[in-house]
Amino acid sequence: MSLYEENPLRERKWLQAIWRGRGTVRPDAWRLYFVVVLGNRAVGMQDLIGVNFDTFQTVTSFSWLASDFRQRGLGREMRSAILHLAFEGFGAAEATSEAFVDNTASNRVSAALGYQPNGSDWATRRGEPAGLNRWTLRRDGWATTRRADIELIGVEECKPVLYIP
């Protein structure tokens, strides 16, 4: 089966994980799901996940971009926007990210935005073990690459829902 063929079970599991995530908002754990739209077509997703945010002010991100929209700089735009929300909007102290070792584009985005290598890990991809690169970005590192053209709207109204003072 091709990666791009329909897989109803995989789609159902993916949707259930999103529904579960939307229903789980605690001081120590929350996840925001954003859709990436180009023109009027959904082309990807960018998530921001609060990991013990109430204690450590740490976040991690997850993204996916349709294959025919890759290599256009959209991945970097997506990550820049979510980092701006995390650091400027929510006051995060640190952001982490992971990418499969062979996902050159995602690893390049992390490096270009100032993330530093932070070890490795393993995950499964389509049922097979695959190596991950781990990345970390502290607030001071983000400050050197932060964008001045990103506007945040409605953040103050969202913070109490996420237990952010």
Commentary on this structure:
GO terms for molecular function: acyltransferase activity. This is GNAT family N-acetyltransferase. Its EC number is 2.3.-.-. Residues 1-138 form the N-acetyltransferase domain. InterPro entries: Acyl_CoA_acyltransferase (IPR016181), GNAT_dom (IPR000182), Ribosomal_N-acetyltransferase (IPR051908). The chain is an alpha+beta fold and 165 residues long. It has a single domain, classed as Aminopeptidase (3-Layer(aba) Sandwich). Helix content is 33%, strand content 35%. It is built from 6 helices and 6 strands. A 6-stranded mixed beta sheet has the order 1-2-3-4-6-5, with helices on both faces. Helix 3 (74-89) links the parallel strand 3 and strand 4. The chain is globular. The mean pLDDT is 92.
Key attributes of the depicted protein:
165 residues; alpha+beta; Aminopeptidase; six-stranded mixed sheet; 6 helices; GNAT family N-acetyltransferase
Short overview:
By secondary structure, the chain is an alpha+beta fold. The protein is built from six helices and six strands.
Specify Rg, calculated over alpha carbons. Answer: 16 Å
CATH architecture title? 3-Layer(aba) Sandwich
What's the CATH H-level superfamily name? Answer: Gcn5-related N-acetyltransferase (GNAT)
The count of DSSP E runs of length 2 or more, i.e. the number of strands, is 6
- The helix tally amounts to 6
Order of helices and strands: HEEHEHEHEEHH
Q: What is the domain tally?
A: 1
- End-to-end separation in angstroms reads 48 Å
Largest sheet: 6 strands, mixed
What gross morphology would you assign? globular
Per CATH, the class reads Alpha Beta
Helix/strand-derived category reads alpha+beta
- What is the third-level CATH name, the topology? Aminopeptidase
Strands across the major sheet, in which order? 1-2-3-4-6-5
Percent in strands: 25-35%
Which residues form runs of ≥5 with pLDDT under 50? none
InterPro entries: Acyl_CoA_acyltransferase, GNAT_dom, Ribosomal_N-acetyltransferase
Pfam families: Acetyltransf_3
Domain N-acetyltransferase: 1-138
Organism: Deinococcus oregonensis
